[in-house]
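Build the 3D complex.
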Amino acid sequence: GQNIDQPTEMTATEGAIVQINCTYQTSGFNGLFWYQQHAGEAPTFLSYNVLDGLEEKGRFSSFLSRSKGYSYLLLKELQMKDSASYLCAVDTDSGGSYIPTFGRGTSLIVHP
Amino acid sequence: TAGITQAPTSQILAAGRSMTLRCTQDMRHNAMYWYRQDLGLGLRLIHYSNTAGTTGKGEVPDGYSVSRANTDDFPLTLASAVPSQTSVYFCASRTDWSLGNEQFFGPGTRLTVL
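Done.
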């Protein structure tokens, strides 16, 4: 089985920086996804990390440490529209099938 | 491009009835997935397909079946619905490994079983 852990809820102030952590225990690790999901909408892809290190995409960055089973999503210059759930998903190789397994998500509330 | 479409958008279904949730993608992705999302439980994988003609079971397959007759379509069938299948259902497809591993989700089907 897999164990994926992320905080249930976080709050932050507009304009600030927030880091959302995700820890996992799994076998057959291929990579790690981050998604954003606004209430009542489908998840949208943010990033996919395969190698250790930080990958930056505009205001969003994602970090991975494979040896520690740890990832984080960093959001800079927070805006009100960043209020959403952020989903971490571990991608594993199961006999040649690539299977993303999701954590329960972190609800981020951005306040003025 | 349309990306991934799902139908219906929402449905109320009597327990014991059967129903097929439709999913179509126009991106020629090989891998497709069905998830259900329940409050507090996150997204859970029901079934997946690596390519046309193949399917596999996910974390919560009981009560559901899928088929993959071609690349574009991946329908999910509930043979005899039960109230615990009340959920939001998302279909997803994924680019191949060499193209960046981006997973795209459909808009979802909200199903209520009474």
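Chain A is about 0% helix and 65% strand.
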